[in-house]
Design a protein that fits this description.
heterotetramer, A: alpha/beta, Glutaconate Coenzyme A-transferase, 2 domains, nine-stranded mixed sheet, three-stranded antiparallel sheet, 32% helix, globular, C: alpha/beta, ten-stranded mixed sheet, three-stranded mixed sheet, 9 helices, 21% strand
Chain lengths: 340, 340, 281, 281
Amino acid sequence: MINESPKLMSTKEAIKKFVHDGDTLSITSCGTAGPYALIHEIIRQKKKNLTAVQATCMHELDLLAGCGCLKKVISSWSYRIVKGQRAFDRGVVEYNIEVQDYTNYTVAAMLMAGALNLPFFPAKPSILYTDIWNRHKEGMFKLIDNPFNPKEKVLLVPAIKPDVAIVHCQRVDQDGNAQLWGALGTVKHGALASKRIIVSAEEMVPREVVRLSPNNTIIPGFRVDAICIEPWGAHPSEVLGYYDMDRMMVGLYSAASVSKSLFSSWVDEWIYNIEDRYHYIEHYTDVYGMQPLHKLRARVYPSASVNLGSSFLKDMELLELKMDDILDAPEMFEVEVDEN
Amino acid sequence: MINESPKLMSTKEAIKKFVHDGDTLSITSCGTAGPYALIHEIIRQKKKNLTAVQATCMHELDLLAGCGCLKKVISSWSYRIVKGQRAFDRGVVEYNIEVQDYTNYTVAAMLMAGALNLPFFPAKPSILYTDIWNRHKEGMFKLIDNPFNPKEKVLLVPAIKPDVAIVHCQRVDQDGNAQLWGALGTVKHGALASKRIIVSAEEMVPREVVRLSPNNTIIPGFRVDAICIEPWGAHPSEVLGYYDMDRMMVGLYSAASVSKSLFSSWVDEWIYNIEDRYHYIEHYTDVYGMQPLHKLRARVYPSASVNLGSSFLKDMELLELKMDDILDAPEMFEVEVDEN
Amino acid sequence: MKIKTIKLTYEEIMCSAASRELNDGDVVFVGQGYPILAALLAKKSGKNLTLIMEGGIIEFNLYRPPIHIADMTAMKGCAASCELIEIFGYYLFGGYFDVGFLGASQIDKYGNINTSFQRFPDKRIAGSGGANEIGGYAKRIVIMMRHGRFVNELPYITTPGWLKGGNSREEAGLPGGPHAVITQKGVFKFEKDTKEIYLESIHPKVNLKKLLRSVPWDLKVADDLKQTPLPTQEELDILRTWAPGVSIGRARWGFRQLEFLKQLAEERKQRNLKYEQKFSN
Amino acid sequence: MKIKTIKLTYEEIMCSAASRELNDGDVVFVGQGYPILAALLAKKSGKNLTLIMEGGIIEFNLYRPPIHIADMTAMKGCAASCELIEIFGYYLFGGYFDVGFLGASQIDKYGNINTSFQRFPDKRIAGSGGANEIGGYAKRIVIMMRHGRFVNELPYITTPGWLKGGNSREEAGLPGGPHAVITQKGVFKFEKDTKEIYLESIHPKVNLKKLLRSVPWDLKVADDLKQTPLPTQEELDILRTWAPGVSIGRARWGFRQLEFLKQLAEERKQRNLKYEQKFSN
């Protein structure tokens, strides 16, 4: 019953169906809950010429750039824990990737404008005093007179409407209602700005669970195109309430990223020679055993409940008015009907 | 302990301290959870020349206009269940109140721009084909060329920065972290756009409860100026998880509102001759007994919990590194200190 | 043929007719009052609908007829709750609403709407509420007009319909447009090319001539003008048990409630009086 | 007088010095790494601080050093969680952050910052992250610069400091401004009028001449140049037990972790080999 959903499909199918070469790809995570199961599948399917949009990333862009999937990047920050040229830096040269630098706020603002279906969003003038402005100027921003206060200039960023968003969240129901909690980053706007939305989740829950926590739903089901159930789908990043970041695996990746050959072996071992996320985790436990994963598992720390109750109890409250009362109302008139 | 908060005060004190004649007042509710305890106190203290901002209202504006507190109204909808001239309509004439009509979206957009501290927000061109536009035009809106797409015109609304916001919510902690759930309407932006924020809540809860439900906090404590604990503070409107709308009391008020003398008796009985919300509810039960209130009380229908846990258990996770290891690090150097 | 006589009201016919304008799978932005009843009937007939209210409630259940846009009776068991601006920006402006279900107090030949503003042009809240943008951006607008009427020229336009007809709405850059108008007299649709309104079906026992006289222009009538189908007995039962105020008129229902309240106050006063007498003796 | 010899690192001195720049009651926007450690020390010393991270975490507890802006170690027991854009719009742009705590890789005479962009001017993500707007709108900017250096001209400006000094920042309409810079050598402040940076205190055993030579302009030095106070033993204990990677250098700590992982993989391989041999026999 719970799995009866036309939107439920394998990650392989979802990426095949909804991510096309040349698409603008919204990577919605901002540090936490990176959609790595989806990213790995995009790489496995050798998608090309993607424009990636992501405010702050861990190594999502490093992977995609290094594997030759990108032609352009719109971002503001990339996590680095090691010195040296990373896969991203090499990929930029090798695949001639265009890099547009923004700030976290302006990427978030462009996505929010896209999500709200507005043409642009105001940014703050602090950018005017930087080389982000000096380098890009009117190519990326517009500086206009504030029509409500002619003495003031206002900097604008345009809306972004990505073709497809990839999201990893905690839970989803069979209708696609996607729930995320903890730090929300840019996930909601990154998803809702996009034309198509692929949601991978740690688990599918019955409708009733979602309907008992409506304030945690960040994407309503009718906006979701594909639902993929991927436990450990954000590994090696973290998912609140499920598992911590695998800092050692992140370190291992980072160490590989600075060398062309190590990177190549890493992606062979963990992406190309792996069928899907299930086998990725199997491979992980083959290599390191269950212990490291066990140590990452979140302990139970349940949120405090809120009362969603109203005064009525029944499924449908029937008002206490006698049918005779209604039929006696002067508005009533009679018609004849054929009972057949 | 729980009540030790410098921001905790009586509603009387909060209105006296933070609402001044001539202020722009943000009435943050949008149908549900009207801040009636705070509204009644504003009327009791005979505040004057307020500019009220509220997207959709029940009878908050009707009361304030009828009692002579307003000089201007920025709104888009007012609930009417009876025909005839209401207190609002009479007040507009008697006190020469300026009425600026917007739409729900544009009021919400002006508040959002204010909350985000941006100068303006784009609106949609559907307004251009209405008399809202024909009547106000550049007085309230600005129509500019989209600098990113010169063929397109974009309608803008300015940010509103009210002087003070009144909010009624479900629960708050001693730091002022205010929690609201259910339909969120315009509450968050109505509050955060404002310079000062008065929060009344159904109950104060220990800090621990808020910290176990951080996604329900809509106003962080450092933004809140006054905390007023007012059970039944939104009566006769409803508060999810606490009580339903008192439809009969709303009807009674509405019936009174259409007559100048009935309105006058109503506000005497329920506002001017009442000391505070505690006595308002006492008066209600004096008149109607406890039964109607009991019927309104919400049944328990607790939300589904989410896991906020991480892998660590302790208050502070101490890493397993021997102190000797640290002291052997080559970065270490020695200094002499006077132990006294 | 077996003939039976049933009693019903035109409001009940309106709700039933409006429910037929909703299709399986529709995402529906529902206004308060009659639209919500029509949505209930459509749901009960097995159509899978996603109902949305602008206060910030997505995919809700109907336990009790909500009376405003953030009514808590709709919050119990909804799939998502959010802010008002999110409903407009993310979903309405994005073109994700298949149907926008509106009320109207006045409407013109091309489905342009005056939601409620009528008498004090400078002194009242216009009352567009959410209707302006809903009328501007939902794919199909369904309008239920109970007390209102057709006028040649709206004294105040709150909500764009087909503007001046023809391609004028499309040229203005607005998607969608009015699809049906349902009144106490009949069901109206819009001509494909001219976008002028015409009578598609007439409710039982309504006099066509009178109807035509009540419209201040030469109203077009469908060649194959039908009678609006009657609500089924099941539909009538649902409406009458779930929202009797609608069947018999909201005013009477409200009046009945007020009477009850006054009676309660009176009883209470008498009881207090007795106590006072008892303790003063 | 009782003299004792203690061992410590300059990073530990930096954290302790930075913690003293936070005042009781401050709302603090904290960057990752050293700023978070300084905030912890200030909290432990009894200052009431509201700590905020841009991923959407407000008033959080420190269980473990978070390593990125939405690190889940900071979500357990926080007072509010929200979206990134809300942190910027509602609170930073509104002027509610008393302190913006930033890292820097290069900094000029007036506290303008290059966060991380250095070598491939057209080919890397500039790396402003949240720093641009934080530097623009927090009331006091405190900058911790560990590996970075002072330069005459920044090859890439990501974050405005006092711009060209004097009133230039105010004239640009930016509030606040840089308040302190803390390096491995000393604590720097800015002159009230010229906004030029000067050395306020020097860390123990740092050679002033060498320090001055490392700055490519004629660095001003406070008339009453002091020695930066040492961390207390309690502060050192906190740092070393809570974030040993910082005391001994993150790289070494990371290396140690990797060694552990490789060892684990090796053990596992051996075990699998044994199984295979066992079953192939």
